Amino acid sequence: MRKYIDRLFSNGFFRNISWNFLGFFLPVVVAMVMIPVVMKHIGLERFGVLTLIIVLIGSLTLFDFGVTRSITHFVTKYKEDGQYIEMLTVIKTGWVIITAAILVISALFYFSRDWISWHFFNVSNQEIRNEVAGSMAVIGLCLPFVIAQTTFVGVMEAFGAFKKISIGKAPFSILMYLIPMGISFYSSSLFLITLSLCLLRTVMAVVFFIMMRSEVNKITRVSLFSVPVTKSIAGELVKYGGWISISNIMAPIMLYIDRFFVATIVGAGVFAYYTTPYEVVSRVAIVTVSVCGVLFPVLVSKIHRDVRAANSHFNKAMLGIFLVLIGPTIIGAFISHWFLSIWINPNFADHAWVIFSLFLFGYLVHGLVQPAFIWIQACGKPWINVACQIVDLVLYVIYLPWMTHHYGIFGAAVAWNIRMALSLVVLHTIRLSLYRRELSRSETLSLAS
């Protein structure tokens, strides 16, 4: 068993996962160090608004409407088939589609900046509200560059350039916190901080375009700008990306709907005993995100060509996630009361340690769900995931309120774990069915040849 594990972690698949994990983990570490300094210099109210601005800049990637994942899918497909002109057409067409959509969103941000600062941020201080309005205008102007950078990263993922992605992100991830900290020593202006962050993201987009072009030039010297934008490719991207977009919209709904019910049913007095453990435990999701980011292009390239190899990578991903999470899950459950007592206070630990432990095991199951979710996407059937999410949501809003009403936050946490367990069974059953169907198809083709 030990030799098998050593062999798994010595191959390129797990090296890519390690680089991907580093890219996600580094900003978390830097943020924990820099946040107290910025909070001290700009004040609690401005810092609260700044955190929302940073979250807003990061979440704007949702406005790619699933086209980025679609680009990764089709770039991988055409690259593996040796259809390099079509591959370049996918990149250019996808970039044009995203840019056209984002320009509309950018205009809305720019011209609605005063409304956003008043209603979304709910800032009463006039000086801070003016700073937020100016920040929204800057975000609107830089948004095309923010989204373009995610497009370039999506192409590099299709090329398996995860080491380059991680190394490229590292300095920008550090500067995303160092620059606001540096400015905070001289000014508390949210506008200046936001401007610096947006300029940084613009430079980041340029750097990643150069890195992406370097990857493309390894297999073809045809210029990206010389290929046409085609309706057929646009149709493929939008059709696949549309389902991905719906899935991306469903995800935050599923993420936060339990909080609405818990707050409404049990009240604000005990709400923190539920949300605080969730916020801490949810950080382990970076392990799953790191693995699945690497797994997706691998599955796209192999499912329809060598489904057994695809299944082998899938099993490696499942084993890797399990091995990484099982230890922290068990240890965390045993020390949860002690940890919460030290971190917050003993009274809080008395109320929240069971919830903390339940979420630990729930996120272990969540980690094992995601590879099946990614397999279904890689098969070119993202609509199946959307259908499962809708059914999942309908059932969840039935049993979650009942369990919360009868058993409080404990019932809500158990309901969340039930949802994870149901997803594990359903998605892996579907994944196995798709695998067997593809295996049967490949065997039939082998016999025919």
Automatic annotation (TrEMBL):
Q: Keywords for this entry?
A: Cell membrane, Membrane, Transmembrane, Transmembrane helix
Q: What is its main location?
A: membrane
> Carries keyword Manganese?
no
Q: InterPro entries recorded for this chain? A: Poly_Biosynth_Transport, Polysacc_synth
UniProt topology in membrane: Multi-pass membrane protein
Q: Where are the transmembrane segments?
A: 21-42, 48-67, 88-112, 132-155, 167-186, 192-211, 253-274, 280-300, 321-340, 352-376, 383-402, 408-427
Where does the record say this protein resides? Cell membrane
Listed name of the protein? Oligosaccharide flippase family protein
The species this protein belongs to is Candidatus Pantoea multigeneris
